[in-house]
Amino acid sequence: MQNLLHNLNPEQLAAVTLPPQSALILAGAGSGKTRVLTTRIAWLIQTGQISPNGVLAVTFTNKSAKEMLTRLSAMLPINTRGMWIGTFHGLCNRLLRAHHRDAGLPQTFQILDSGDQLSFIKRLLKANNIDDEKYPAKNLMYFINSAKDQGLRAAAVDAYDDFNRKMVALYDLYDLQCQREGVVDFAELLLRTYELLSRNQPLREHYQSRFKHILIDEFQDTNDLQYKWLKLMAGTHAAVFAVGDDDQSIYAFRGANVGNMSAFEREFQVENLIKLEQNYRSHGHILDTANALIEHNSKRLGKNLRTDAGHGEPVRIFEASSDIQEAQWITEEAKNLIRDGSLRSEIAILYRSNAQSRVIEHALFTAGLPYRVYGGQRFFERAEIKHAIAYLQLMDNPHNDSAFLRVVNFPTRGIGARSIEQLQDAARQYNISLYAAVPYVAGKAGSSLASFVKLIEAARFETQNLPLPEMVQVVLDLSTLITHYQNEKEGADRIENLEQLVSAATLFVSEEGFGHDAPALTGPTSRPASSLIANDQGIEIIDADAALPTVMSPLSAFLSHASLEAGDNQAQAGQDALQLMTVHAAKGLEFDSVFIGGLEEGLFPHENSSQEESGVEEERRLMYVAITRARKRLYMTFSQTRMLHGQTRYNLRSRFFDEMPDASLKWLSPKVQPTWFGRTKSAWDDAPESGANQIAQGFSKTQTGSAWRIGENVSHAKFGEGVIVNIEGSGTNARAHINFGKFGMKLLDLGIAKLERM
Ligand code: ATP
Ligand code: MG
């Protein structure tokens, strides 16, 4: 039997082997919280205190759930497939699939990701003639999601004025429409499960007695509903093992409530509060930087981190003149690291906002470095993939109106806005889905619509006994999506992505273990109408594990996967690639080398948060998360200018630099206030911090008359039109890097080259 415990320090050992009572492990980044949690699961199983199916473990991302399962199978000779380890959303999806009737959902309910949800709401507003200036779709979406995150249905929301009453009414309408179409949003997955278990005593008691141990990672970022869900699942008997770090609470904007930690301590009568103070991840300079920074926050539970790893390399800071130069510098450094033997996947490039990734991606692409982007424009969010998925969704659940509208006329088949309007009228009149309303539309519109329905029915028929990947291939052919993109100028990429969808399905089938004899597409099953059956002994529960194989077709499972695990299949599996992601997405992960880009006032800390102290504290925690991802090398960069949302912005470097210890930092450029061509330094040094941004912008305007600016469009007699990318030196020594498009990048002496402003 493998000794699971020999690699643990005394505090970790104590935590892993706690008696079966609720416990809170409160500890800083890299102190082994996740490792302790995983080892505890293994230890509980190995010592026979629980069987693998008695464990419920909640992770923050799908990626960490997978990692946990891999680690467990390395520690124990058991098959971890099917263990209840996953995200809140993933676990709820599993429960709702199995008990869909009790939850009041159709067997093939489908999940709206946030993009789908927004278009769904826009459609809802339009269909009900609601003024979307007064009730913007995004606001309504936020309103609905935050109500759900608090566990509130429309009827329970307090509406204190006319505007709110209208929002509540729209929330109600939204829920009705979702129900009619058989779709659920992310928050609904949780709320529905919560309601199901609160209402249904036998089911609740069944799962309460099944899951004797509940373990939850990243506890600081649970929201109110997740906490309530947890209490319900735990009942009075389960031992809940929560691990978290208040300094890494970074999801307040999504309703996360760090107060859940103290509530947990109180309500679960936690006697075992363990702190871990030894950091195993980062070298000394990196850790000192993180510790010094987070000390500037006032509301902390207080804990320290130390390391035995030695100082290691200093944290390197680079000031770029433009975001393009920043990206090029990062690319060059990454290349050096790889040349020195680093794996590409051990290098992460982190940024505060998704918009920053484009320039970096471009630089990496030009340099021929493979990379993988997590989050952002994910594989399953790409338009062409959404189209293909919509066909599959309609085959699985034809009443999904969003899917219907997405592809009813894509590729174009002569179904115009007028026909859709007629169809929507009919659907409204009979209170049925668009698909079901097709027979009620007469004339030419009716027959075009009917042929679309025939197409879907044909696809269902032709694929009913096919394994999933072949099914996807048939749908790509029948839908004529591939042919459509073949005729499009930039369709090659899209076709490649569509082909990737077949590979994604293949991978999914092999990972999830759906054999070829898996249940056919859909259709009546022999399941009873409820997961509860009365028998001689009383009530018997059909557990999710027993029910799932009969209710979840490979297609349904794949479609849930597409909504829940967007992003996971983006780069080719197994390819060693640089890792690009937002700081939010990097939580819990670690890499040998980490770059954090865009450390500028307004970007990091973000301008939306920098007005209030609590906002800045959240940004600081985010920065703490970013820093503590690094094991050996950390680089921070900022840029004097940046193109964001189509505008060139002139920013000051982030205030966070002044909160980090000089002894741990190495400035690769002299530490001065940002400068650019033609500017006198003193005017800046006196600028008050909060107003600096505006002054910077004002300043650049006054300079445009006399000096060249980065970002400016110029024209040159020989090279034609170009854009100034970087300026070096000043006065008569000034030289500029100018991108002349087809002539490429040129370095010109500004005093000599006869440039003209455009
Ligand atoms: P975060 O707060 O970022 O989620 P964490 O507290 O969950 O971090 P882990 O990811 O569990 O920390 O551990 C950080 C690293 O330290 C991992 O590589 C882990 O394997 C290693 N580690 C943890 N404990 C020990 C130990 N006792 N001996 C050696 N390495 C350890
Ligand atoms: Mg962790």
- What is the number of helices? 27
Uncertain segments: 515-528, 567-573, 673-706
**Count of distinct strands:** 23
| Class based on secondary structure composition and strand pairing | alpha/beta
Chain-averaged pLDDT: 85
Describe the 3D structure.
The chain is an alpha/beta fold and 758 residues long. The chain is 43% helix and 15% strand. It has 27 helices and 23 strands. Strands 9, 10, 11, 14, 15, 16, 17 and 18 form an 8-stranded mixed β-sheet that branches. The chain has a 6-stranded parallel β-sheet with strand order 3-2-6-7-1-8, sandwiched between helices. Helix 4 crosses helix 23 (544-551) and helix 20 packs antiparallel against helix 22 (491-512). Mean pLDDT is 85; it is low at 515-528, 567-573 and 673-706. Bound molecules: adenosine-5'-triphosphate and magnesium ion. Residues 284-588 form the UvrD-like helicase C-terminal domain. It comes from Undibacterium nitidum. InterPro entries: DExx_box_DNA_helicase_dom_sf (IPR013986), DNA_helicase_UvrD-like_C (IPR014017), DNA_helicase_UvrD/REP (IPR000212), P-loop_NTPase (IPR027417), UvrD-like_ATP-bd (IPR014016). ATP binds at residues 27-34. It holds the Pfam family UvrD_C.
